[in-house]
């Protein structure tokens, strides 16, 4: 991918420190209500969770895949399946494995937003893969467009001297165009606008002198309102 014209940003700048626990809400003001929970499938509600590093981090063992994220990220974390995703419940980005990358969803208790978290295991074992990860972070940190998926957070490691896995939190979308095509559902007027949304996103990406070299239906994320976001810019 060419990324001329996009300002570089060091990994130390990109990796933010863990946020402190949220302050107690003022009793004189009503607390913000969290979003409605996702439907939980049998066995998911019992996913083991263990506080670590003085309570700053929490570990989830999701069917043998260990996620260690800052403690602000709460369940539900629910798994799912097809050739690329696992699909349980109303949200399709819940837990899945693509190559060595593992995805899950979680609730950011500070913002009350459900996010998709990508775990890149042993991110620095391969120099080329590490550069691709850093390139995607740099690009998405600078991009701001309604048709390009946004990074919500870069979750820092508990200890810098044991920095092996990278965790990136993205906007959570419902599905992708590949699943829409496979579903054989009747197309609506909203579906007819998808091509326009793809072109809008590509025009924005190309304006930054960036080429998306792997544009395909599974890299075009959608939600129930037919909002579209292009992902996987690495």
TrEMBL record:
Keywords: ATP-binding, Kinase, Nucleotide-binding, Phosphoprotein, Serine/threonine-protein kinase, Transferase. It catalyses: L-threonyl-[protein] + ATP = O-phospho-L-threonyl-[protein] + ADP + H(+); L-seryl-[protein] + ATP = O-phospho-L-seryl-[protein] + ADP + H(+). It holds the Pfam family Pkinase. InterPro entries: Kinase-like_dom_sf, MAP_kinase_CS, MAPK, Prot_kinase_dom, Ser/Thr_kinase_AS. The keyword Nucleotide-binding applies. GO terms for molecular function: ATP binding; MAP kinase activity; protein serine kinase activity. Residues 80-234 form the Protein kinase domain. SUPFAM superfamilies: Protein kinase-like (PK-like). Signal peptide: none annotated. Gene3D superfamilies: Phosphorylase Kinase, domain 1 (3.30.200.20), Transferase(Phosphotransferase) domain 1 (1.10.510.10). Its EC number is 2.7.11.24. Residues 1-46 are annotated as: Disordered. Belongs to the protein kinase superfamily. CMGC Ser/Thr protein kinase family. MAP kinase subfamily. PANTHER family: MITOGEN-ACTIVATED PROTEIN KINASE (PTHR24055). This is mitogen-activated protein kinase. It comes from Prunus yedoensis var. nudiflora.
